[in-house]
């Protein structure tokens, strides 16, 4: 069984952290409605959704992916790169404790889950404004006994590694090659985003389907041409907060 942990949109989401986007007005009610539709898509794709309550004092808390890296054997509770987000890990650790043994990233390490791309037993971690080498070293030490390899990837021009690349099938990556080197992922094949949709590389692969924003129709068509079954969702208000479809859930197996 797949579990997806989500969190309600904060009423203060308009005060979110922004790094690469200009601030725009966010319709909180519409953002909440879009998030509910996203949760419905998770259910359609086979997940049991566990929704945590909103954190009114934590504007970015809906983006739960950044707070943990959940693998089959263990969960790593991150230390987010933005100081205003560090308090988000408390409730996430409590939510994950029944399912996994927890390890915590410690200072001076910082890492956002959005910087971590897992392909099988390989974890690629973006060296971005939110994640650093000290956290990668800690992850290596924790995960080596479980047979994982951890690699660093330089990221430029975007918030997270998964802003630039996500997995959309067992053999295929969706990539914006201007933000990172697309040649460092072994034998994975690559489909590039449409040049007019630079933010379109974030997709959520679940089994035989991919949850994908309707905001990027040209890249969505490229995915379909590669045989990818796309489940479209409108997350336009969350995108204004520098969010994406992987950001809004923590998904893991629970037997």
Structure in words:
The structure is a single chain. With 255 residues, this protein is an alpha/beta fold. The protein has a single domain (2-253), classed as L-arginine/glycine Amidinotransferase, Chain A (5-stranded Propeller), CATH 3.75.10. The protein is 21% helix and 26% strand. The chain is built from 6 helices and 15 strands. It has helices spanning 28-44, 89-96, 133-143, 161-164, 217-225, 236-240, and strands at 2-7, 47-52, 68-70, 75-77, 102-104, 116-119, 122-127, 149-154, 165-169, 172-175, 189-192, 204-206, 209-213, 230-233, 250-253. The protein has a 3-stranded mixed beta sheet with strand order 2-1-15, with helices on one face. Strands 3-4-5 form a 3-stranded mixed beta sheet, with helices on one face. It has a 3-stranded mixed beta sheet with strand order 6-7-8, covered by helices on one side. β6 and β7 form a beta hairpin. The longest helix is centred in the N-terminal third of the chain and has 17 residues, at 28-44. It is globular.
- Number of E-type strands: 15
What is the molecular shape? globular
Provide the CATH superfamily.
L-arginine/glycine Amidinotransferase, Chain A
Write down the secondary-structure element order. Answer: EHEEEHEEEHEHEEEEEHEHE
Strand content: 25-35%
Rg, nearest Å? 17 Å
Write down the CATH class: Alpha Beta
Distance between the termini: 6 Å
Profile the largest sheet: 3 strands, mixed
Q: What fold name goes in the CATH topology slot?
A: L-arginine/glycine Amidinotransferase, Chain A
Question: How much is the average pLDDT?
Answer: 97
Domain count: the total is 1
Q: How many helical stretches? A: 6
Helix content: 10-25%
